[in-house]
């Protein structure tokens, strides 16, 4: 199978207020999940789905992000001299992953505004957006399926996940029609954070999008919505309402493992779950978790 490269955009310019004070001087996308910053998992996912060009939209505290994807020759030199190849490999991995570019958002005027900042870099091509605090387990397939659906159906594609109806008020929610494919739905409209009683489904929008370049013109015209921010959901809603603009909006229903590292409780759970799966940490952590469960 031949794969054509697709540009990936990772918005990482949010204020991350739920994590204060940890995010006072550091973007939340740099918080470690086990021993890697969250954003490195996301860049690895983009690369695995066929992207070799990644644009990170940065805000204040951007240096930590830029430095992470840069070489750090002094440390590399010291580890090489010590012959510590395994740590050297860990240090160099992030700088070798892909061509990582940065653009500033300026003021954090919303996710839609962050995506609009990618316009010049992306040009007139379909591109992927991956939220830098939303992790998809590397063993499960999502983005490459979304890219495939976008290409075969010339569609804008969003990622959806079934959630417990009592949690839908925390997400964007999609009203959908079935298609001939089990994991693909047609998006009729979106509702931002509905009460359970008003939700048209239990399908929540999660942080992966495959967008066509027409989204940029729509975002330019999108008025600030909730919280005075330019919402990506509003622009997607406009596309879903008028197929003439850029074809249909489809949803790929993800049934794998997702970790929301922007939420404190999910962040802690993510660290435990991912560490349990690791050969170097899993056995000891598992024994401790069992012991802890007995004590609680
Ligand atoms: P969130 O809704 O999680 O907002 O953004 P936030 O401000 O970062 O976090 P809290 O709620 O204050 O803790 C979703 C994604 O969009 C990016 C964030 O970095 C995150 O990946 N984002 C959001 C931007 O890049 N720019 C913005 O103006 C807003």
How would you explain this protein's 3D organization?
There is one protein chain. By secondary structure, the chain is α/β, with parallel strands linked by helices. The chain is built from twelve helices and 13 strands. Helix 3 packs antiparallel against helix 4. The N and C termini lie far apart (51 Å). Uridine 5'-triphosphate binds next to strand 1 and helix 5.
Oligomeric form: single chain
Determine the mean pLDDT.
Answer: 94
What small molecules are bound in this structure?
uridine 5'-triphosphate
* Tally of DSSP helical segments: 12
Helix percent reads 25-40%
Q: Which consecutive residue ranges, at least 5 long each, have pLDDT under 50?
A: none
The shape, in one word, is globular
Which CATH architecture of the largest domain is right?
Answer: Alpha-Beta Complex
**Main sheet makeup:** 9 strands, mixed
Radius of gyration, CA atoms, in whole angstroms: 20 Å
CATH H level, superfamily name of the largest domain:
Spore Coat Polysaccharide Biosynthesis Protein SpsA, Chain A
CATH fold-level name of the largest domain:
Spore Coat Polysaccharide Biosynthesis Protein SpsA, Chain A
Top CATH class of the largest domain: Alpha Beta
Physical arrangement of strands within the biggest beta sheet: 5-4-1-6-11-8-12-10-9
Provide the domain count: 2
Number-wise, the strands total 13
Percentage of residues in DSSP E strands: 15-25%
Termini separation (Å)? Answer: 51 Å
Helices and strands, in N-to-C order? EEEHEHHHEHHEEHEEEEHHHEEHH
Structural class: alpha/beta
């Amino acid at each position: 199978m031949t794969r054509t490269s697709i540009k990936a955009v990772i918005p990482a310019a949010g204020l991350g207020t739920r994590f204060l004070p940890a995010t006072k001087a550091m973007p939340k996308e740099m918080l470690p999940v086990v021993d890697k910053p969250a954003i490195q998992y996301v860049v690895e996912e983009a690369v695995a789905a066929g992207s070799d060009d990644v644009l990170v939209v940065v805000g204040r505290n951007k240096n930590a992000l830029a430095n992470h994807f840069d070489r750090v020759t002094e440390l590399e030199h010291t580890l090489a001299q010590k012959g510590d190849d395994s740590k050297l490999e860990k240090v160099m991995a992030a700088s070798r992953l892909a061509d990582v570019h940065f653009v500033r958002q300026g003021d954090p005027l919303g996710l839609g505004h962050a995506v609009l900042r990618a316009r010049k870099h992306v040009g007139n091509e379909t591109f992927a957006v991956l939220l830098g605090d939303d992790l998809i387990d590397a063993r499960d397939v999502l983005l490459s399926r979304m890219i495939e659906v976008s290409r075969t159906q010339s569609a804008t594609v969003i990622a959806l996940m079934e959630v417990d109806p009592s949690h839908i008020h925390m997400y964007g929610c999609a009203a959908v029609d079935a298609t001939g494919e089990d994991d693909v739905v047609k998006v009729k409209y979106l509702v931002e954070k509905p009460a359970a009683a008003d939700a048209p489904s239990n399908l929540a929008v999660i942080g992966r999008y495959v967008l066509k370049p027409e989204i940029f013109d729509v975002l330019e015209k999108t008025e600030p919505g909730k919280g005075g921010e330019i919402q990506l959901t509003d622009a997607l809603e406009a596309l879903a309402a008028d197929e003439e603009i850029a074809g249909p909006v489809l949803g790929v229903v993800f049934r794998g493992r997702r970790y929301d590292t922007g939420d404190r409780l999910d962040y802690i759970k993510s660290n435990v779950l991912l560490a349990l799966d690791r050969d170097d940490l899993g056995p000891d952590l598992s024994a401790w978790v069992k012991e802890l469960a007995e004590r609680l």
